[in-house]
Amino acid sequence: MIVCVLLPRFQLTVAASDRTELLQAPAALAPDLGGVQAIGEVSLPAEAFGVHPGMRLGEALARCPTLTLVPPDPAGVADSWERLLVRLESIGAAVEPERPGLACFDARGLLRLHGGIESVLAAARRALRVPARYGLAPSRFAAVAAATRARVRRPVIIRGGRDQARAFLASMPVALLRARPVLAELPEALERLGVGTLGELAALPAAALADRFGPAGLLAHELACGGDGALRPRPASELVRESLELPEAASGSQLERGLELLIDRLLARRERRGRTLRAVVLSAVLVERGGTWREQVVFREALADPVRMRLALAPRLDAIPAPAEELRMAVERFGPPASDQRGLLEDPAAARMARLREAIRQTRAAAGPDAALRVLEVDPGSRFPERRTVLAPFEG
Amino acid sequence: MTGPRRLAVPRRVAVSAREDGCPETVDGRAVDSVRESWLIEDRWWTDRPLRRRYWEVVTTCGRNEVVFHDLEGGRWWQQR
After folding, report:
1. Which residues of B touch A393 (CB under 8 A)?
2. For residue B23, is pLDDT > 90?
3. Which pTM value belongs to this model?
4. Complex ipTM value
5. How many domains does chain A have?
6. Which of A46, A165, A186, B26 is a good FRET partner for A371, with 20 to 30 A between their CA atoms?
7. Would you place residue A104 in the very low, low, confident or very high pLDDT band (cuts 50, 70, 90)?
8. Residues A355, A217 share a domain
9. Judging by beta carbons within 10 Å of its beta carbon (0-12, 13-18, 19+), is residue A143 exposed, middle or buried?
10. B1 closest CB neighbour out of A375, A389, A393
11. Do A391 and B4 count as a contact with CB atoms less than 8 A apart?
């Protein structure tokens, strides 16, 4: 049983901060600086004008000329979301954060701990301490759909298996598929073809959908039939963070001195326990409510040397779009304990293998777990080419 | 990636063929010559037998393609 926790318009709410009146009027998150000119989350009044997340800025303004654009606050969103995830994890849940404002976890392992599904939901509600919508269903997609139908105090619970999930989804619009980035374009095409609900989609033959839409069509069919992939919970993380308030709006060399101070403070933290830093997140609060700026930096080699860290991080400060009033730095991932010294009589083959493992770790830290794969021969003599080899994770 | 992924998985392809089964066009490209053709049969003792007629052809634009006709399902597939 998958539980979905949904906080609607989370990023917009965090970005609006105490300006809650913005959420009562047509408003949307402004596009990222230098990114695609598409708006982010939109307020309820903006939705009434037909504006939806991901819409091009020009089209959104044409549909709703009074639309207010709220500068995004990526650092604030990441901080708030991390706090909420840690609270959810405190009840024993292995949480998969899908995007800020939407997280799922499998409730099966928690049933005995808390004494039933209602108790699990109650524990999650108590731990989270903010109003959220809860959906519970056999698959992740159905749980997300259930959460969109739920009220803050009234969770929607779909008991049973795949068939019950399919029956629940049948009357829902295909627009729900937009929640999956790979299916973002599909609902529009389906609606043009007269397929308006997930029930109509599930009734179509899978082969016909594969012919017309490829893998996206098959995935959409699987979701509409009440299936979905397994959850991939995030690994347990530690929050080690330092921040520095800058008395005057700072930029250039002042920021670099602030960065030096932050690095020294972070390396002095007891929680580091002698470990190196593999990846950090630099963020800044911009002046005049200009939002925030955030960038993840993965070091080429796990570091504990402040000078080398400063060399790697200082150029990133040039990307801050406006003077900053606060600079923050957080550890995203720790490396092994600081020790780069190699043995005098080290076996060259072992050293080469260690360097290769290190390179693979770096590549995976920067580009994800699929970054290093190997072709594995399974049945090289098979007459069927697809049985001869598979692509498997590289084990260094 | 959650587990191993197969390589050289067949992909659907649009093929028009003559009555004897020899491809005339592959994905709209006319076939210039047939280099080789072979038949593979397997799992004939199960409920899901595999029977494929493979064709290695060269199209007029110079591409070397390997396609097969699934003699059980009736569809055409491309494979590297």
Report:
1. 1
2. yes
3. 0.59
4. 0.83
5. 4
6. A186
7. very high
8. no
9. buried
10. A393
11. yes
